[in-house]
Prior knowledge:
Oligomer: single chain
Strand order of the largest sheet: 5-4-3-6-7-9-8
Number of helices: 14
Strand content: 25-35%
Radius of gyration: 21 Å
Amino acid sequence: MKIQQIREEKIKLLAPAENMYKAAVFYNPKMAFSRNISVAALQVFKKIAGRKIVVLDALSASGVRGLRYANEISGIKKVFLNDKNPVAYKLIKKNIALNRLKKKCVPQKGDANILMHQNVFDAIDLDPFGSPNIFLDSAARSIYHKGFLAVTATDTAPLCGSYPETCFKKYGIRSLKTDYYSELGIRVLISHIILALSRRERAFIPQLSFAKEHYFRVFGKIEHAGKITDLLKQFGHIMQCFNCGNRKYGNIELRCFCGNKFEFVGPIFLGKISDRKFCAEVAKECKKKRFIEEGMLAKQLASESELPPFYYDLHYLAKVEKIKLPKIEDFIARLRKSGFKAGRTHFCPTAVKTDAGYEEIIKMLK
């Protein structure tokens, strides 16, 4: 394996020089965006917690994420950088020494699940290649009862409904291919996290969630078991009509107004997937650190956090109804003038989120 030295923010990094998918140790420069916003989010959690924190980067690979946590976040006590790949472990140790972070960083070589069973951490970051499902039970055992959990999923196709059976096998929820697939996918992931942690008496409260390119990223604070009941009350079903395009969510209805049978997803979490105040604080932190694009996303997430679940893709509706597409900002203004909540979403550039019903939206489009 050929090694090159690169930089990511203030970190010097020894990383594979060859194609990242063929390398013995995985390093993806495109995920710098995710790491940037993760640094800001963990810093905000640290401020809220008001204590020094111990962090686990459970699947470290080159170690870049854990190294950045140790170097860029004030109030970090220790960061454990773990990977069971012996080549990755050696590289992690070299990168710790290269950045003079031996006092803060602890290299670990082993199975992430075993490590989590044996220790308690204030914050755990799960950033696997594929699904995080096999790590969540161990994370639930390991996370401090007032901790912070960050989870990545790159298996977006099953989550978004392209492979419903695979989604059911991995996450216990059968997804559907819809025009709001991106938000549906991330809500399936969040639902699975909430239920996995509730089995270990941990309440996972989503704080910041987004979809980008090939992955979903979710951050949540951990609270005591008394909050689990409130979370479970926010689960319901999504009903989708593939005849006219109508959808509803909440309590089960069997038929659409057009007479066609609904297809179902659920039970699924229908509550807030981002917290307005937390996202606003992350945006401020991004500004301080000059993470411009990441700060813009955090601001957008704060803005859309109070809007109802599931967006409407106006391009899709215009195609289905065979009507001319209005300017999105004009349509949002029209919805607001009629007394509805409405706004844009990061999930889709041609979509709106609103509490207006499907029939009302179609009437206003026409």
